[in-house]
Amino acid sequence: MTFAASAQDLRPQPRPADTTAAEVALVQTTTTAPAQRPRARPEGLRLAAAPAALQATVSTRNAPASTHAVQPALLRQRTQLAVQNAQAKRARGQRVWCVPFARDASGVQIRGDARTWWSQAAGQYHRSNTPEVGAVMNFAPTKKMRRGHVAVVSRIVNSRQILISHANWTRNQVSLDMVAVDVSPRNDWSQVRLEHRRGQMTSTTYPIYGFIHPTRG
């Protein structure tokens, strides 16, 4: 099945305030009058739609120092490429999937369903339960998400909160710099909740395999 392209189908969310001019121009070509995203969310995840119990889980401790993180300039270049490729696919009437977007945005060269990425990465890429900029967050499959999901870490806010960029979380769309919160009891990023739309957190908890880093393991 194919889908007719329209200006509303592929709508990347606005980047943080430190986005380069070229990247702002790229995002604005696919959305109408976007509100500027704050430079960083306040400690404590102050989202109107987030349940009080979820807000209480968010730690204000600083995240550990990154050892495999990607340089911000390189991540911006890769994300631009991923968005451009997604736009080109929509223009041809093709679906925008999470796997090609994550591959383009992270540089992790794995193919196949997202549910297979964790096992495929073994021996190829460094894997961990610690989020770092440029790493792929690998979602385990669920009943409603049988093929799993992948997203790319775009920013570390604190030890329990990051921003991610991914495709097809909202059908056929690209979502940039969306909040992801670790709600696991041990702060090991095995369970997360996500920002589905700006200021709106999902009520569902999603299982996570871990993070695949674009450095060879």
Explain how this protein is built.
It is globular, with a radius of gyration of 16 Å. Strand 3 (149-158) and strand 4 (161-167) form a beta hairpin. It has 217 residues and is α+β, with helices and mostly antiparallel strands. Residues 1-65 have low confidence and may be disordered. 40% of the residues are buried. It contains five helices and eight strands, in the order αααααββββββββ. The longest helix is centred in the middle third of the chain and has 20 residues, at 72-91. It has a single domain (21-216), classed as endopeptidase fold (from Nostoc punctiforme) (Alpha-Beta Complex). The protein has helices at residues 21-28, 52-57, 72-91, 98-106, 117-121, and strands at residues 125-128, 136-139, 149-158, 161-167, 174-182, 191-197, 200-201, 206-216. Helix content is 22%, strand content 25%.
What's the quick description here?
The protein is α+β, with helices and mostly antiparallel strands. Helices cover 22% and strands 25% of the residues. It has helices at 21-28, 52-57, 72-91, 98-106, 117-121, and strands spanning 125-128, 136-139, 149-158, 161-167, 174-182, 191-197, 200-201, 206-216.
Tags for this entry?
217 residues, 5 helices, alpha+beta, globular
Any chance you could write out the topology, listing elements then pairs?
Elements: H1 21-28, H2 52-57, H3 72-91, H4 98-106, H5 117-121, E1 125-128, E2 136-139, E3 149-158, E4 161-167, E5 174-182, E6 191-197, E7 200-201, E8 206-216
Antiparallel strand pairs: 1-8, 2-3, 2-8, 3-4, 4-5, 5-6, 6-7, 6-8
Helix pairs in contact: 3-4
